[in-house]
Every structure is written in C-alpha cells, then in structure tokens.
Fold this protein.
Amino acid sequence: MKTEFRSHLKNLLMLSSSNLLLKVYGEIYRIFLIRRFGAEPFGLVGMVFPFYRLLVILITMGLPAALVRLVAIEKARNNPAWILEAKKKASFFVSIPALIIAFFLFFFAKPLGALLFNDPRTGILLKCLALALNLNCLCLLYRGYFHGLNRIAPLVWSEAAETVGESIFVLFTLYTTAFSGVEKSAQTLAQGFIVGELTCLLLLCLYDYLFIRPSMKRPPQPVVPGRMLSCLLNSSFPLMAQQLILSLSRIADGILLPQLLKKGGLSPSLAATKLGEYWGMATPLLFFPLFLFSPLSTIILPATAQASIRQNLSFYLRKIRLLVGAALVYGLVAGGLLLRLGPAISFLFYQTTAAAQYLPFLLPALPFMVINQLLAPVAEGLGKQGFLLRATLVMLLIKTGVAAAFVPLPNFGLAGAAWSVSLSQALYCCLLLRETIFSPNITAKWFFLFHPRYLTSRGVTDQHSSMLR
C-alpha cells in the first residue's frame, strides 16, 4: 500500500509540475500571439476546431478512453500479451479510416468550409488540419495506452514536445514571413498544430520502442486468457457516443453562436472578434485554475479500475469523497479571486479588459468543473459509460437551450452562452455525485428523475457489476 501511494504521489507531482509549467508557458505564448495577430484569427480557428474534433471522435471510436480502463485491468492481471495485441489492433482500427477521411477532407475543404461556417477563409484551415488528422488520432491512442500502463513520463514529455514543437514553428514563421492578413495568421496557427502533433507522435513511438516493448516481452510472461478484444470496442462505443455529443455541442457553438450573434445585429467581422474574446481570452481564464486537479483525473481512471478488481472499492471511494471536498473549497476560492482580480488580470495579459465582462457569468461554473474532473474518471473507471452518455446528453440539452434563448438578445449576447456553461456544469456535477460517491451501489435505481428502464435498452447491464460477479 505504501509503495502504491508513493507511486501515485510521484506521478501526481510529475503531472502537476509539468502541467503548471505548460499552462504558464501556453498562456504567455497565446497572449503574445493574440497581441500580434489579434482576436479574429483565433475566432476563425475556434469555428473550425469543433468540426475537426468531431472527425477525430468518429475515427477513434472512443478507443483511447476504453483502452485506459482495459489495459489497467489486464496489467493488474499481469497479461502483457493481451495489452500488446490490443494496442496493435486499435492502431489498425484508427489508421485506416483516418487516412480515408483526411483524403476527402483535404480535397473538399473549401466548399465544406463555405457550407458549414459561411466563411470561405475556413477552407484553408480545414485543408491544413486534414494533414494532422491521422497524427492526432494515433497520439490519442498512444496516450490511452501509456495511461492504462500508468506510465506518466511519456504523457508528460509528449505534451511538452507537442507544445514546444508547435510554438517553435509558429514563432519561426512569425519572424521570417510577412503576414498580410487574418487568413494567413490563422493558417500559421493550423500549420503549427500539425508540427506539434508530428513531434508528439514521434516521441511516443520512440518511447514505446525503447522502453515499453522490451520490458513487456523480456522475460517472457505466461499468457493469461484476457478479455476478448471485442470488449474493447463494446466499451468504446458509449464513450464514442458521449464524445460525439460533446463534439456536436462544440460544433453547435462554432456554427450557431456566430449566427445568433449576427441575428442580434453584429456584423460577421465583429461576431468573429467577440467570439475570439470569449473563446480566446475569457474561457482560458476559467480553465486555468483546473491545472491543479487535471493530473488527478489522469491517475483516477486506472486507479478506479484496479480498485474494482482488487475488491477495495469502498475504501477507495472514501478517499475520493475527501478529494471532492478539497475540490469544492479550491473552486470557490479560485473563483472568488478571479472575480475580484479579473479586470486587472485581463488588462495585464491582453492589454484590454474585454475578457472580464464574461467572468461573472462563467466563474459560477468553476467549482462544479473542478469536481467533475474528479468524478467523471471515477464513473468511467467503474464501467458506467452508459450513465456518462445519458448525463452528458441531459447536460448539453440544457446548455444549448439556454444559449439559443439568450445569445440573440442584445442585452445578453455571449453572456448568455456563459450562463449556459455554468448551469450545465452544475447539473452535470449533481448527476455525477448521485451516481458515484453518494451511491456506491453500482445498480442505482434511479437516474435523475427517471428510472433506467425508460432510458436504456432492455437487457443492458453495467459492466462493472458483471465484472464483480
């Protein structure tokens, strides 16, 4: 137990320190680019990226997240042969559709950008991102593989390599090329993303070849009959559906919010500027305090899966309750400080207080977001993918409805979108609390206000309860 605690503590310190350094570096880098490029290129990128993430979700089919849990379980059973076979087949499942979709996206980028976003400038961005599609999918798969093995070092170094590779390319291009407009600036940001993904994938493959595969093959381990590889896909489909719903919500933001702002009387250029202030300035201030608890979510998922195998789940959930209490206090304190110092921080970072106008509406979501970062991997480690899918659907219906009702109103604008984030995160937190730490019984009788038989197909049972049986 002491050895396991020390291992978790070491991983937490490594992730926390690297996450903090990358956050600080990323914020400085982003603020510098906003000052040089302006907010409009980031607004264009913010429109395109949700669609790109949708393609990534459809291609990966939830395999990275499912691989984390099943690899952690098979590692506890000392079954490296199954792990290597699962990684090999998952890579094949991801690479083939990624190459096919990237081919069509590259050649039909311009008409697709005009159709989806009503802005021809997004076509060149889609063409650039098509080149990064397979790289990004394989990076996510490798990260899930290392995550399940509890190998934190490659996760840390790959994120650092991705950030550094991207920033070096963008800064080099910035100082060696004459920029002529918003489209060129946005294209440079997209090209930097390609370089970052390529650097990340090369490092992950190199680490796997030099350190992971030799340790898993020598000395030879007895082959333990593991789960059928079809279980990997069965576990991944609810996760894919959940990620798909989240991606569709982001696409709705990228497509509907500009339309709603135009309906409220803003020009396309002014709408892109406002979205750049909201996505590129205010939202990062909301997400920045999460850096302290983000490493915990990385450790919690495989630890939860292993705790369920080792029959010490009740003790484990008591520890999670203590973390939730600490997360609530941290979220309230951080939100209060940001609310009080928001205008000064916005002016210090961006030389404008434009981001501060959204903080009073965004910051109520912060305590719930911190708690959700802890509880979502707990539910996923328990095998409650079906619950996460339903909870995400309910949350996003509320979020989209509130945003659609208030964003077109001149007195609200994007403040209505900020309120929708706060309300949806609060609802999601209540559902997660009910299903995890306050209801350790895996077969809960109720989901929110409805019985599960009205929300799921007949005969679907929880994977965790069948595993315990």
About this structure: The chain has a mean pLDDT of 82.
